[in-house]
Amino acid sequence: MTVRIYNTLTRCVQEFQPLHPPAVTMYVCGPTVYDAPHIGHARSAYIFDVWRRYLEFKFPDHRVTFVRNVTDVDDKIIDKARQELAASGAPPAAGALKAKCAEVAARYLQRYHETMDRLGIRRPDIEPKATEHVVPDPAHVEATKHIDASMTGFISQLITKNAAYPAGGDVYFSVRKFPGYGALSNRTVDELQAGARVEPGERKADPLDFALWKAAKPDEPSWNSPWGPGRPGWHIECSVMSTAYLGDAFDIHGGGVDLVFPHHENELAQAQAIGKPFARYWIHNGLLTVNGEKMSKSLGNFVTVEDALKQCGGQSDVLKEFFLNAHYRSPLNYSDTMIQMSLKRLNGWRTLIQHMDELERNELVSRKTVTSTPPPKELSNLETRFEKAMDDDLNTPEALAVLDEIVHEAWGTLRQQDPSGLPQPIQYKKSHETFNRVMHAELMLRRLASVLGLFEQHEALVLSPEQQAKIDEREDARKRKDFKTADRIRQEFHAIGLILEDTDHGPILRRRL
Length: 513
Known about the structure:
Isoleucyl-tRNA Synthetase, Domain 1, 3 domains, 15 strands, globular
C-alpha cells in the first residue's frame, strides 16, 4: 500500500514518492504571532501534525524533517503593538514601537507554543523566525548551506533575473513576467486582472504585482537593504525559509486553503522565477466555521483554543477527535452538538482503555501475555483497513470508524462470556484466549490512535491516601447495608470527575470522561 495525496498543484490524487529517500521534507506555514490562537489555527496545526505522524508511521526507515515558520514581523503585529502602547497611556518614545512589536511577537509565540503543547501537537524540527532571515546572517548560511538564506539576498536575485523591480524604496514582483503564475490557484492572469488595483501609496507598475520589500515607515521595525531601510513583504518569507532549510526542491508544502491565493501562489512564483523547483506536493486543509458562520470577532463567534478546551472539559483529545471527523480538505463546522458527539465517541474508546488499565493495576490481567503473540485475523484485517483509509489522502473519518470497530470487537468478545455485565466490570473468570483477544484489541486501539496523536496524555489513575480511605469507608458501609452512605461517597467521587465501579474483585475507580 502506498500513500496517496491530493496535490493542489495538479488537482488530482497522486502517489507520494519522496524526492530524496530516505528523507521526507515538509514545510508548513506557521502562525503570525499577534493574538491568542483560535480553533482554526489548532485545526491546521493538528492536521499537519497527523500528516507528519502518518508519514513517520508509513516510512519508519525515513527521516521526516518538518519545518514550520513563525511570522514575527507583520502589519497585524505592528497594529497590536500600537494598540498596546496607546492603551498604556505612556508618551511615545523613540524606538518604542519597535520594542513593543518584538515584545508582542515573543509573548504570543510563547502562548502559541503553550497552547499547542497542551493539545499534544508536536513542535516542528525547525522553527525559523522571519526576523532572523531578513538580511544575511553567517550563522544561517552555515547552518543551511544556502547563500540565499536571507530575504534581501533572495530579492536581489529576483531583480537580477528581471523578475522584480525597485520602486522608490519598495520592491515589487513582476507577475506578468512569470509565465506560470496562477498554476497553483488555477487562475489566469486575465481573471486576476479584473480584481486587481493599486492601493494608495503603492508604487507598483502593474496592479497584479505584489510587494517583496516595503520602504520603512517612522518607528516601525526595519532593516537596511540595497533599496533603503524597510521590511519584507509577507510572501517572500516562506520562499526563503523553506528553501533555506529544505533545499531548492522539497516534498510537501502545507497550509490552510485560504493561503492558496495569493500567499502560496506568490511563494511558488518567487522561487521558480530564480530557478528553484520548490515544493512537489501542495496540501491544504479546509476552513472552519462556528455555528455555520465564518469565525469573526465582530460576529461574536471567535473561539480561542482555550475556550474550546473549556467546552471539552479540558480534554484535548475531544477537540482532536472533532477535527478528525471531517476529511482534512473539507470545511468543518464547530458547534456544541459536534463537540458532544466527539466526547461521546471518545468516551467509548477510553472506557475500554481505562477498563484494562484498572484490571491490570489490580493484577487481574497483564498486557505482557499478548506482546509475543500475533493478533487474531479479524483484528489484523481492521488494522489493514485503518492503514488503507489513511493511505487514501488521510481519510480520517474512515480511520475513526475502524477504531470504533476495534472497540466493538473487544466488548463483543467480553459479552460472549458474560452478556449481563457490560460495559460495567464483569465476572473476571475468563479464558486465557478471551483476554488475549481483548487485550490485542485494546493495544491495537492505543497503537493506531497514537498515529492520530490521541491518548498520549492518558495516564492510569493513581489513588491518593484520602481517596483510598473514602473507598474503604464506602466498602464498610456496603457491608453494613448502609447504602445511603455508600451512595453519598459515590456521588462525592462523581462530583470531582471520578466514577466508582463495583466488581467481584473489589471497587475500581476511574476518571469520568
